[in-house]
Amino acid sequence: MLEVRDLSVSYGGLRALQGVSLAVGPGQFVTVVGPNGAGKTTLFKTICGVVPAAGGSVSWDGAPLLSRPASARAHLGIAHVPEGRQVFRTLTVRENLEMGAWPAAGRARWAQTLERIHTLFPILAERSSQLAGTLSGGEQQMLAIGRGLASAPRLLMLDEPSMGLAPAVAEAIFERIAQIHKEDGLAILLVEQRVAEALELSDRGYVLETGRMVLEGPYETLLADDRVRRSYLGLGEA
Predict the structure, then answer these.
(1) 155-159 and 14-24 as β-strands: parallel, antiparallel, unpaired?
(2) What tens digit of pLDDT does each residue of 163-173 get?
(3) Does this model's pTM top 0.90?
């Protein structure tokens, strides 16, 4: 479905990504982990068309994606839930969800998608007429995920959904993400610093450091890797 091959991105002459490759198949859960500044958000922005690539390729269903304008990519079934939530603070909860339903698939399936969003996040139904900027951080994250789901995507890209949230709230968000994947069969590409929780949900994980993929494999393989255990899980060598 989504294939990134040898992707490179530069900012002001500096390489943010160098030769990055990954793949997400239909219905798969794939996680990219790594420290701050590794290039995780840049990877997402390049896939979505916000940041141009300096080299390599990105394909969707076997067709080149980098030549498509960013505005067209959501219509292909790619939804991006950005870092920091970025809800429309002066719009209501319902209006934020309606904005997410802008792609053709979202408009066609609006009624059933809205019902699903309200089932996953009942608070969004209760606060439908409330301004998004008055919600708590956790509620805004729920809204951001709901807005992504409103487009009826085939791939949901989540950038640091636990950022700035209390541990209990972050755990609840992870539970909903797992539920979406399991019950809806939606492909998910997750960027996250809570490495253990993120990898445990995944079919496959990638470790990104200083713009390069340094490790990849299923959860069990990465968990057994001494580098991952020391640097990301705070554990000793196996």
Answers:
(1) unpaired
(2) 999 999 999 99
(3) yes
